[in-house]
Amino acid sequence: MISLLFFIIAAGLYGIRRQGKAIPISVIIIFMSFGAISSTMVKFIYFGEDYQAYQKLNWQPLAPSKIEDYLAQGYRVFVDITADWCNVCAANKANALHRNEAIKVFENSNIILMRGDLSQSNPIATQYLNANQALGLPYNRFYTPTHPQGIELPRELTLETLLNVLKKP
Predict the structure, then answer these.
(1) Which of 96, 155, 97, 168 is nearest to 129 (CA)?
(2) pTM reported for the whole predicted model
(3) Whole-number mean pLDDT of the chain?
């Protein structure tokens, strides 16, 4: 779509130039700026990742009573409390949870993924948040055998922060 727009503008400028009329410098500067902004937007939006890779992950419904059993078996447990209406939750998915590097760690490690969805009423997720004195969404906690109480992650996740926490034994 952007390429088509560039073609139309370039053809228009060529037509003006062919008629012997001068093309104002401001039009050329605007055209170049638009090209630079467009290419930057494409680079920013497209990380070169498989945006559907996260669908391979096996998320289980949140079951706080099972966490201790999983830890005893040597698993680690990642808890994600989210909601469809939560903008920060969506940003965390795009910036960290659904990124290829994080997905590879989730797939290739002994990590059980649990999700509590508050898009609709969910008493288990609500009780879990209250028990952990969480102030809102999103809420992520990572349990390991050496951290049985769990490590609370910041509300706004970065890929670097997530990967550093997932390295914990």
Answers:
(1) 155
(2) 0.71
(3) 86
